[in-house]
Design a protein that fits this description.
- This protein has about 190 residues and is α+β, with helices and mostly antiparallel strands.
- The protein has one domain (about 5-170).
- About 30% of the residues lie in helices and about 35% in strands.
- The chain contains 5 helices and 9 strands; from the N terminus they run E-E-E-E-H-H-E-E-E-E-H-H-E-H.
- The chain has helices spanning about 50-65, 75-80, 135-140, 145-155, 175-190, and strands at about 5-10, 15-20, 25-35, 40-45, 80-85, 90-95, 100-115, 115-130, 165.
- The strands form 2 sheets. It has a 5-stranded antiparallel sheet. A 4-stranded antiparallel sheet has the order 6-7-8-9, with no helix packed on it.
- Strand 1 and strand 2 form a beta hairpin.
- Helix 1 (about 50-65) packs across helix 2 (about 75-80).
- The longest helix is centred in the last third of the chain and has 17 residues, at about 175-190.
- The two termini are about 20 Å apart.
Length: about 190
């Protein structure tokens, strides 16, 4: 389980770039998604230990994938393409043709188990992954109203306030199993394994 504290989204016409940051471990990882592809394919780069270096690499990706191959500088690309900071990724959704990234933008700690926190989603944000040009139905204009209906249904369902997440607990695994694995890790560390 990857436990990013913060994620930073950069969006250009060609790619989405996500920098995942684990502040306590001082590790950053860069992911990017080709927006012209009909299916989401996430490419991950090696971890970077310096956040400024991670920004430079993300900027180089944005410049490399921009039309003209880099008429703008790295910092200009970062400034132009920055979208928002988010706390976690709920997942990817597909309704008719295009996929959406659903990000947690606000959360509130509602419980603690020792030093581990459980948060409730307070706000989400959806970002269309593909360009409208790479979605065949949007090219024909046939289903834009249907897509908007599905998006409004999702909004009315309200992911906010009904979903929980944690950066340090696997919420889908029982507490007993998590405590057992914690005890095993402690014993292994004690034994020097």
């Amino acid at each position: 389980m990857v436990k990013f504290d913060r994620l930073y989204l950069y969006k250009s016409e060609e790619i989405l770039v996500i920098i995942g940051s684990m502040r306590q471990e001082k590790i950053n990882k860069i992911y990017w998604i080709d927006r012209s592809s009909p299916r989401v394919q996430i490419t991950g780069l090696i971890p970077v230990y310096d956040y400024k270096e991670a920004l430079k690499q993300a900027g180089r990706l944005l410049v490399h994938h921009s039309p003209g191959g880099g008429n703008t500088g790295v910092q200009q690309s970062l400034d132009r393409c920055f979208q928002f900071v988010f706390l976690g990724l709920l997942g990817f959704l597909r309704f008719t043709d295009c996929e959406y990234l659903v990000a947690i933008t606000k959360g509130e700690v509602v419980a603690r188990m020792g030093t581990r926190e459980i948060s409730q989603v307070r706000e989400t944000r959806k970002v269309m992954v593909q360009n409208r040009g790479s979605c065949k139905y949007f090219q024909s204009g046939q289903v834009e109203s249907l897509e908007n209906q599905y998006l409004s249904l999702l909004d009315s369902y309200g992911l906010d306030n009904h979903v929980y997440f944690s950066h340090s607990l696997e919420l889908t695994v029982s507490i007993q199993k998590q405590l057992e694995s914690d005890q095993q890790r402690t014993l292994q560390a004690f034994r020097g394994e």
